[in-house]
Write a structure and sequence with these properties.
The complex is a heterodimer of chains A (255) and B (173).
Chain A lengths: L4 H8 L5 H11 L3 H12 L4 H8 L6 H9 L22 H12 L9 H13 L14 H15 L13 E11 L2 E10 L5 E7 L5 E8 L2 E8 L2 E7 L3 H15 L2
Antiparallel strand pairs in A: 1-2, 2-3, 3-6, 4-5, 5-6
Helix pairs in contact in A: 1-3, 6-7
Chain B lengths: L2 H10 L1 H12 L2 H17 L10 H23 L15 H19 L3 H12 L4 H8 L3 H31 L1
Helix pairs in contact in B: 2-3, 2-4, 3-4, 4-7, 5-8, 6-7, 6-8, 7-8
Classes of the chains: A alpha+beta (255), B mainly alpha (173).
Chain lengths: 255, 173
């Protein structure tokens, strides 16, 4: 009879009854390998939790606590299945947007275009942002360049982050999401005051058009297409500032 | 469990979730993303949580699933899976210099384990999950979990022993 791993662990950690210990002692008498394992297990009975709590520093997580507090539960109607899941999405907050989107397009309403549905999803995601959602720390140029290279590679076209610093909005980060399997880049900015906003980009084969403004999920949206790229500006940004940012984006990228 | 209690308990778990996310991602930005995604999924699926069971084990299972399915490959592709614990900021060497050297050795030994063994050791001995809960979180049989614990702890014993031996040698020279 051999000693199981569970028994070895329990024996080494002193979690057996005296009778069980005696049973294992008898087996150990004829099992040199098990005796070596027991010795190693006793040597590795260490203050793991204390080490993690003492040495892995936890930053201020109040922005996540705020998101937990603000999360709005929504009962998903059966039509939800048509839209989920978001393939390969690493930002699961998009799911909240998906759910919310069901109520913007209730059953019986004229069927929205795929693009309108996507823009609505982007707006619902951005609606979760507060200033606490993004780090106030400056993003190093090397990190920004690396992120933009990665975004360009994943979208299959060169993407340059519009420089909005001259208008007081700092680049924070760029991420790639999947929306119905299509890559979508999000470039996040934090202005000197007010809420953060995002410029989202996707490849498109649709015809160019100028900015179309709307409001969705309490955030302002402007969407336009130029040169095979669909742009969406989204945020709780006053219209006059949106116009300035969009002007700079279009000037910067020829969009 | 009412919604508010659920939110309060989830919020109270944030430091533990963040530490585990940091162990997995080795990068504060990605750890932040992993914790946010875990919390959102926990909130959206709270109706699946069974009252009377452990919220921490359930939430860690969600985090493990998100990591396994969405983030791990991406993190490794970016090179984050091969950074030394100290370089990754996982071990605060300033604190180590002030009397926490042994704890730093313990944490570094765990961090140098292969990922499967590291997860097993971390979930059982840091997060305090039962074998069954940890096996469930990792989606492996309980026997595989205990096997990983034995192999992981045996390697930790070797690493701690080697470190002690080096320190004795340097003291003698």
């Amino acid at each position: 009879m051999t000693i199981s791993d569970e028994e070895l662990l329990a024996y080494a950690d002193g979690k057996l009854t005296p009778d069980e210990m005696a049973d294992i002692d008898r087996l150990l008498a004829d099992d040199a390998e098990a005796r070596e394992t027991i010795a190693a297990l006793r040597q590795s009975s260490l203050p793991y939790r204390e080490a993690a709590e003492a040495l892995i520093e936890v930053p201020d997580l109040s922005h996540i606590a705020d998101q937990i507090k603000a999360y709005q539960p929504v009962a998903a109607p059966s039509r939800f299945r048509r839209f989920a899941p978001l393939a390969a999405s690493i930002a699961v907050f998009f799911v909240a947007g998906l759910l919310a989107g069901q109520y913007l397009f209730p059953p019986g309403a004229p069927k929205p275009t795929q693009w309108a549905v996507w823009v609505d999803r982007i707006a619902s995601y951005q609606a979760l942002y507060t200033r606490d959602s993004v780090s106030p720390a400056a993003t190093p140029a090397a990190r920004k360049n690396g992120q933009m290279l990665r975004v360009s590679k994943l979208l299959g076209t060169t993407i340059n982050a519009p420089d909005l610093a001259k208008l007081g909005a700092d680049y924070k980060y760029a991420k790639v999401f999947a929306i119905d399997g299509a890559p979508l880049a999000q470039i996040a900015y934090l202005p000197k005051s007010g809420e953060p906003f995002s410029v989202c980009l996707m490849k498109t084969d649709k015809a160019d058009h100028g900015p179309k403004f709307s409001t969705s999920h309490g955030v302002n949206v402007a969407a336009w297409r130029k040169g095979g790229i669909a742009y969406v500006f989204v945020g709780r940004t006053p219209r006059d500032m949106m116009d300035r940012y969009i002007g700079a984006i279009r000037a910067d990228s020829g969009a | 469990m009412t919604t508010d209690t659920f939110r309060d308990d989830l919020t109270a778990l944030l430091p533990r979730l963040w530490r585990y996310a940091m162990v997995k991602c080795r990068n504060p930005d990605r750890a932040n993303d992993l914790v946010q995604a875990t919390c959102e999924r926990a909130l959206s699926r709270r109706h699946q949580f069974q009252a009377g069971t452990r919220l921490d084990a359930w939430t860690i299972t969600i985090m493990q699933s998100i990591w396994k399915n969405d983030l791990r490959r991406e993190s490794i592709r970016r090179g984050a899976g091969f950074v030394d614990a100290e370089d990754a900021g996982l071990v605060d060497t300033r604190e180590s210099a002030e009397g926490k050297i042994f704890l730093a050795q313990v944490l570094q030994a765990v961090d140098r384990l292969p990922e499967a063994q590291k997860d097993a050791v971390y979930l059982v001995y840091v997060q305090g999950l039962s074998y069954e809960e940890a096996a469930n979180a990792l989606d492996i049989p309980a026997g595989t979990l205990t096997s990983r614990l034995v192999r992981g702890r045996t390697k930790i014993a070797e690493m701690i022993s080697d470190t002690s031996e080096r320190e004795r040698s340097s003291e003698q020279t």
